Amino acid sequence: MTATIEPEVGKSRRRKEDERLITGRTRWTDNIALPGMLHLAVLRSPFAHAKIVSIDTSAAKGLPGVVAVYTAADLDPEGAIGMPCAWPITPDMAAPRRPVLAADRVNFAGEGVAVVVARSSAEAHDALEAIEVEYDELPPVLDLEAALAEDAPLVHEELGSNKNAFWVFDSAEAGTGGNVEEALSSSEVVLKRRFRQQRLVPAFMEPRACVVDPTGAQLTMWSATQVPHILRVMSALTLGIPEHRLRVIAPDVGGGFGGKIGVLPEEMMTVLVANKLGKPVKWNESRSETMLAAHHGRDQIQDITISAKADGTVTGLKVELLANLGAYNGLVGPGVPILGAFMFNAIYKIPAYHFACTNVFTTTTLTDAYRGAGRPEATFAIERIMDELADELGMDPIELREKNWIKHEEFPFTTVCGLTYDSGNYEAATEKAKELFGYDALRREQKERRESNDPVQLGIGISTFTEMCGLAPSRVLGSLDYGAGGWEYASLRMLPTGKVEVTTGASAHGQGHETAWSQIVADQLGVPFEDVEVLHGDTQSSHKGLDTYGSRSLVVGGIAIVKAAEKVVAKAKPIAAHLLECSEDDLEFSGGKFTVKGTDSSTTIQDIALAVFAAHNLPDGVEPSLDSDATFDPENFSFPHGTHLCAAEVDTETGRVKLRSYVCVDDVGKVVNPLIVEGQVHGGLAQGIAQALFEEAVHDESGTLTTGTFADYLLPSAADLPSFTTDRTETPSTTNPLGAKGVGEAGTIASTPAVVNAVVDAVRHFGVNDIEMPLTPMRVWNAVRNGTPDAGGPGGEAGGGLGSIDASGGAQ
Amino acid sequence: MRITVTVDGTKYTDDVEPRTLLVHYLRERVGKVGTVVGCDTSNCGACTVHLDGHSVKSCSVLAVQADGCEVTTIEGLARDGQLHPVQQAFHDNHALQCGFCTPGMIMQSIDLLADNPDPDEQAVREGLEGNLCRCTGYQNIVKAVRDAAKHMSPGAGPDAEKIEQANHVGVGGE
Ligand code: FES
Ligand code: FES
Question: Which of A164, A367, A538, A729 has the fewest CB neighbours in a 10 Å radius?
Fold first, then answer.
């Protein structure tokens, strides 16, 4: 057997996962069909807020194919089963019980009120229509500020308020920095802005689904989840099922982006029903149900104040947030804004910082983690206000950033939040990005267009960013009252034939773990890439773990693999010494081979695997096994960073925005697979740009979601996006043996402010200094018109004139 | 209603309800679960298959409309263990992540290349407008389609499928 010599880590390996995915041999949850399987469909409330007066299921029960119809009274008669929240951010956080099915009251449009179980999915859905529910409508609670008023209608009457929690961090109190009020009152420039983070839909392409089989020795649950291990423990706790009798499998999962992090009432219902009937049951949802009932993301109002000296040195930052949680606490929903709290200071040396957040309940779909969770929101606000500050001071926005960022030689650097950034080189990334972008030439073109009153104006947007990746050091999570640790697990088995089986607790849903982990193992053990098989997403094979979110897979899960491999090599060493009849001290291991120093006497780790299997000739006291386990708990986060530049063309006559070029230089530390990293960046950019330009989940005044399908919710297609120019600098993290930093969320975090900054920059000379996201043609057009001093002010419908642009093409 | 449909070269005769969508027929009756459902408004394109050699969203076609037709799904593309050039190009260019949109993307791309064997970037982007992907940002998909164009032998589009399928039936019978 030959061992590979050329390192695998760093190679653009094409993915092992692809073969089944491009040939249609994938195992999606919805593909699973078991003998005698029944189908479950959920009747959902059409009202945002209502009392349930009565539910009549008798007609539905008699319909063809219908096996059973259940309401809360049948499934959860004691009202004991409430959905879990793992992140009680303050001791007094309000925690209303979220039932699996609404019993006497619905609190958002889409909340489940009854279920039908039938022989086919079509029959189950038909029967939903025959269930009669009488509702008594209550006033919806939608506006975040109004929800906090004294006399506001209450989402949960028993709480006496719509406030979930108030969470605060102050650098003076924490001893990590100065007093913000002093900074604000003593600075030459103070700028205050309100930004809105619109509500978004994660919009993974595979809708959620779950199959439960209660007929075996264990209860087996397949779910399109991104957190099978968390789902297992939470289901056990929620339903009182002994954990060892429950096996959770996340087969191939069609995207998650945080949107599949929840523990779902639908999953709990399916278990309850399957147990009641003693038959396998499948639940799969339509896209419109996903839009209504899977959690949403973002949805914050951000009041941000920054102070600076006249030369641009930032002196203080104050952030006050209102965060919309929707109707209940999601699994980690209350903590999402808190994740952002540590990122508002971004890459800057900010001497004084105050952050306060009020989480608010409304009668809307829950919000919870969505790609970046908290960090995109924070980065948006700081990067937008830095641009506004630059404008205020008459500085180039890059110059202002340079003035304030942490210099390369200042790392490690402890921020005003108390986090220590281990490494970074903002200068290098920015320099490279500027060059690729052609910054100076584009600025010149911008000037020309302005001077010639070109109807199409050019804007340049910059966004520099960092984020905390690799969630997370367990003790940090503990200090933030998060309900679990942040370690990750791996195990590694050398098989008798020399092949390697690796299990990871970081369950993948499109990130390419099977490929990247194989590369890591190939290098660690010196075995061929093809000889490694990665197992994940099944609590029976990868029996421990904390799953995939927060760009934690590589920097936590990947390191666990490195540790497991090191243990296997350590186990093999005495055996190698025994077989080669030398002392362990005389051995060196490289390229998969143990060699007696200074000789050509050697044996491979794959040969040792066979010797261990045979166990005929092992040293005394050595167990016949080349298996190992490792659990890695990071000592610190990792902090990828980057500089993104966007050139946007804005048609001032139509409000249409066209992205002319987008350049990003990301520093994600040491890269395992450049191909995968680039793909992650592309996908992230598309999501962040979509927030800037296209996407918004909208409720009407009755609380009905009016963007409930892909026909109304503007997910961008290929035709809506440009090609991106991506590049990298590589500043290894100093806190993990791979030097990796994490990449999954980078593109999303940095791109939204880059695009908005570009569009605002394009039309700033019309007096525009902000446009609310998404920047639809109508909003941009209105901003141009209303921002223009001589445009005649607001009012009028589409078609009105445009300040310095010829107004004659307007109203018809 | 009784329908006879040739799917990936095999002829099936089945009784279906008039309301059954082609995608559900393919998934639930024929077992072609490689074709997936991503939406209920015909917006996402995840369910795209070829019907008599042209791409259709199989969630917007009734199974009865496929009576007497030939359907090719993602599972019928690879021949004799050889990936279709578009499948190969998706793999080579990392044009997929979670892979849920991928069957539909590949089927649509083949149709696109049949219409325009050498599309520029804009033509690919417009040709894929009806297929949504949440993971890739589309850039590598566009790259893959243009790469495949270089490797497609003339006639390797849906029309070729149709001819080959006719042969399949002739050879394999029922
Ligand atoms: S499932 Fe057919 S277009 Fe979405
Ligand atoms: S690869 Fe995941 S949706 Fe396209």
Answer: A538
Task: Kindly report the nearest CA distance between residue B170 and chain A, in angstroms.
Answer: 24
Among partner residues A205, A509, A510, which is closest to B38 by beta-carbon distance?
A: A205
Which positions ≥6 away from A305 have C-beta within 8 Å? A184, A190, A191, A192, A193, A316, A317, A318, A319
Selected for mutation to probe chain B from A11, A14, A22, A707 (highest B CB count within 10 Å) is A22
Residue A578, phi then psi, degrees to nearest 5: -60, -45
CA torsion through residues A552, A557, A562, A563, sign: positive
Q: Ligand 1 centroid vs A204 CA: distance in angstroms?
A: 14
A132: Cβ contacts below 8 Å, ≥ 6 apart: A54, A55, A56, A59
- Ligand 2: which of B74, B136, B141 to mutate, judged by most atoms within 8 Å of the beta carbon? B136
* Residue B134 Cβ < 6 Å to ligand 2: yes
| Index of the ligand 2 atom closest to the CA of residue A206 | 3
Dihedral, CA of residue A101, residue A104, residue A106 and residue A111, to nearest 10: 10
Buried b (16+ CB within 10 A) or exposed e, B54-73: ebbbbbebbbbebeebbbbb
Set of chain B residues whose Cβ sits within 8 Å of the Cβ of A675: 94
Cβ-contact A534, A514 below 8 angstroms = yes
B34 contacts in A (CB within 8 Å)? Answer: 23-26
Packing angle, helices B102-115 and B158-172, rounded to 10: 110
**Alpha carbons A687 and A665: distance in angstroms, whole number:** 17
Is the predicted ipTM greater than 0.85, yes or no? yes
Q: Which residues line ligand 1 (CB under 6 A)?
A: B 37-39, 42-47, 57, 59
Low-confidence ranges of chain A (pLDDT < 50): 1-4, 789-812
DSSP string, A533-568: EEE-SBTTTS-S---S-TT-IIIIIIHHHHHHHHHH
- Order across the sheet with A593-596: list the strands: A587-590, A593-596, A602-604
Bridge pairing between strands A456-466 and A420-421: unpaired
Select the residue from B41, B44, B109, B138 to test the A interface by mutation, using most A Cβ atoms within 10 A.
B138
Q: Are A269 and A100 in contact (CB under 8 A)?
A: yes
Cα–Cα distance, A649 to A658 (Å, whole number): 5
Q: What sections of A581-636 are H helices per DSSP?
A: 605-614
For residue B155, what pLDDT band results from cuts at 50, 70 and 90?
Answer: low
Sheet holding A189-200, edge to edge: A163-170, A353-361, A314-326, A297-308, A189-200
pLDDT in tens, A56-98: 999 999 999 999 999 999 999 999 999 999 999 999 999 999 9
Is the Cβ pair B134, A711 closer than 8 Å? Answer: no
Distance CA B157, CA B146 (A): 14
Helix or strand (DSSP H, E) at B160: helix B158-172
A465 and A347 Cβ atoms separated by less than 8 Å: yes
| Of residues A27, A115, A108, the one with CA closest to residue A76 | A115
